[in-house]
Amino acid sequence: SAASDVYKRQQQSKPFLPNLIVRTISGTESYLFFLDGPTNDVLYMKHSPEDLKRFTDAESTILWEPGEVAAAIRYQDIDAHIIATVSPNKERFHEFRKRAKMFYMPCPSELQLRLMGQIYRSTAEEQYHHSDKEIHDRVIEFGPFIRIVLCWSKYELNLFKVDRMTEIEDIVSSDQSLAKALRSQLNIMESSRGQSGMSHRLARYVVHRDATDPFGGYAKPYYEISCEEVRNEIIKHIGQSSIQVVKQQLIYFNRA
């Protein structure tokens, strides 16, 4: 009946509210947030990835985050909802991708990063945290990446700059490689070697929001150059290319 169809659509549109949220690092150590009791308890435990199915069910949500060592997402025989927050490198989630819907998360704005910095400074006084000016300078030079802007040391930044310049030199080694890298939207960041598009050293995801489809902008890999430093470096190399390629790429940069 029409009434039952309306009821079904209403049920489907309701958000899923889990009784248990498991925030896990590569399926080996987890924080368990119990939401169905009189108090919201949290339990920390270490375990194997195979154990996830033993303490979760269809009323649970697993928030999977990568650890220091790359590990495939464990999902076999698990009834819980799984949300994996990983880089778009296919090695991280190749098999999982066949069964899951993929959303591309954009970087925060500089204002949001400065707010995070203020929270760090107010809650962790024993450690040094960057000022608003330092955060601004890092966004300009490296892009609005949380870990890079808020956490990395100067040593890590210097290594990053060396790797970034190597990638730029590979991309601009020929007119063909430059054109391919700038237009390889479907492959961006899926290879850490930068051979099928740009890596996170040079580009970042953005969202093209649409009021008629709130999640549509997150379902496709739109991107922009990561920061002014990278943009200026690539434009400098474009100036050394042929006139025709210069015209084509400047048109692209004016649209980006």
Structure overview:
The chain is built from 10 helices and 7 strands. The chain has 256 residues and is an alpha/beta fold. A 5-stranded mixed beta sheet has the order 3-2-1-4-5, with no helix packed on it. Strands 6-7 form a two-stranded antiparallel ribbon. Helix 4 (110-123) crosses helix 5. It is globular. It starts with a helix and ends with a helix.
Secondary structure: number of strands: 7
Share of residues in strands: 5-15%
Q: pLDDT under 50 segments (min length 5)?
A: 1-11, 190-195
Radius of gyration: 22 Å
**Percentage of helical residues?**
40-55%
Label this structure with key terms:
256 residues, alpha/beta, five-stranded mixed β-sheet, two-stranded antiparallel ribbon, 10 helices, globular
